[in-house]
């Protein structure tokens, strides 16, 4: 997907999404998660209902975020100009994180045993790139379709919600992970027309 006219980037900047394999790349994106969710947004998930066992760790490269699902997922890097500028991950149906926060009957009743896509974070200087959100949504649909299943996303960001709805996702529920969360999370599903 090519984008044009974004201040600070060359014309035809290409956004690509790649599944990360190296431990160095995965460690780097866990740092982006810390910078976005903890440092910037002020997440304090350990205060209440930390069903994912989110923790903050440090090493020689700085602070990073870890949880129970970090070893049971695929990490996807958002790449611009050969630089990892963002991340999200996919979790197969048997390990869906949302199962810890929502009723099992809701999750088990979803069509096509979906992959869950979560922990999306993009470095601030790349967030306004035209096509960024669409690239993420397109990847989730294609990734799950290759696996002959649907996809599920929980997001509290209105722009993400709007883009995903335009791409064929359906909103099935809103909820909050914690009572002190400011925004409700929209639970979005895409069946990939496999039903």
Molecular structure report:
- The chain has one domain (about 1-190): 3-Layer(aba) Sandwich (Aminopeptidase), CATH 3.40.630.30.
- With about 200 residues, the protein is α+β, with helices and mostly antiparallel strands.
- α3 (about 130-145) links the parallel β7 and β8.
- It contains four helices and ten strands.
- The model is unreliable at about 1-10 (pLDDT under 50).
- Helix content is about 25%, strand content about 30%.
Write the layout of secondary structure elements.
Layout: E1 2-3, E2 13-19, H1 23-40, E3 55-59, E4 62-66, E5 74-80, E6 83-91, H2 104-108, E7 115-122, H3 132-146, E8 151-155, H4 158-166, E9 170-175, E10 185-190
Parallel strand pairs: 7-8
Antiparallel strand pairs: 1-2, 2-5, 3-4, 5-6, 6-7, 8-10, 9-10
Instruction: Give the biggest beta sheet.
Output: 8 strands, mixed
CATH topology: Aminopeptidase
Count of domains:
1
**Which sequence of strands runs across the widest sheet?**
1-2-5-6-7-8-10-9
Any low-confidence stretches, pLDDT <50, length ≥5?
Answer: 1-11
Shape: globular
Q: What is the CATH-assigned architecture?
A: 3-Layer(aba) Sandwich
Structural class, please? alpha+beta
Q: Write down the secondary-structure element order.
A: EEHEEEEHEHEHEE
CATH superfamily placement: Gcn5-related N-acetyltransferase (GNAT)
C-alpha-based Rg, rounded: 16 Å
Strand content: 25-35%
The CATH C-level class name:
Alpha Beta
Strand runs, count: 10
